[in-house]
Amino acid sequence: MTLFEQVSKDIIAAMKAKDKVRLEALRNIKKVFIEAKTAPGANDTLADADAMKILQKLAKQGDDSAALYASQGRQDLADAELAQVEVIKSYLPQPMTAEEIEAAVRGIIAETGAQTIKDMGRVMGVASKQLAGRADGKAISEAVRRLLA
Fold this sequence. Notes:
Layout: H1 3-17, H2 20-37, H3 48-71, H4 75-89, H5 98-112, H6 120-130, H7 137-148
Helix pairs in contact: 1-2, 2-4, 3-4, 5-6, 5-7, 6-7
């Protein structure tokens, strides 16, 4: 079952459970998925890898919005946004710990034969592909920089 189908199925479950927060978040996810499927050149398909990227983007946007609401003194809106972000994050893989990222980067450095900080681009290219969806690009970059320095 694709991620798109899973979200569609979960919308029905949320309707039956009368879970308004989950339902609203899932409908927003499905709307963005449909927009991606119908975009020019998409051929009416949405791969799970693309769906994961969309979910990561939505989660980041939600976190940013919640932080903005909280800084403006609107904790009610921030809490609502964070509740939706939790629903979105439930579809994302468990994020890697700093130790796991470092271990993976060490393996990639050994695999690519990188020696100095000049090889960072090559290591980042491989690491970004291998750790996509499981680790933040900033955390990967910091680990690569630290290990190559």
